[in-house]
Amino acid sequence: MTGSENRPPPRRRLIVNADDFGQSHGINEGVKRANSHGIVTSASLMVRWPSSKEAADYGRHHAQLSLGLHVDLGEWVYGDENWSPLYTVVDPDDVRAVDREVRRQIELFRDLVGRDPTHIDSHQHVHRSPELLPLFRTVAEETRAFLREGSHGITYDGRFYGWDRYGIPIPSAIGVDALDGIIRSLRPGFTELGCHPGLGSDMISPYRDERAIETVALCDPRVGEAILASGVELSSFRDVER
Question: For the whole model, what pTM was predicted?
Answer without folding.
Answer: 0.94
